[in-house]
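Q&A log
Question type: sequence-to-structure
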Amino acid sequence: MRIVNRIALALVIIGALVWGIYGIFNFNLVAWIFNGSLDFLARIVYVLVGIAGIWCISLLFYPMEAEEERHHKYENFNTESI
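Response status: OK
Response body:
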């Protein structure tokens, strides 16, 4: 499940960058990559980014305690190895 979270997060970040480029420069990067002629591929990219965004909503409700425990385990590992 962890790999799915990372893939979803990467797609959301890519989507955010594409929207930022479009908003700032009025340049559609996805259409440019697919030459504008492969509209169905561009739609697939948009759908994948949308699904990733929906998936990342679940990350908002991910228990913070689990994340803090992992952080503390990492800190303890580093101090023990010194």
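Response note: The chain has a mean pLDDT of 82.
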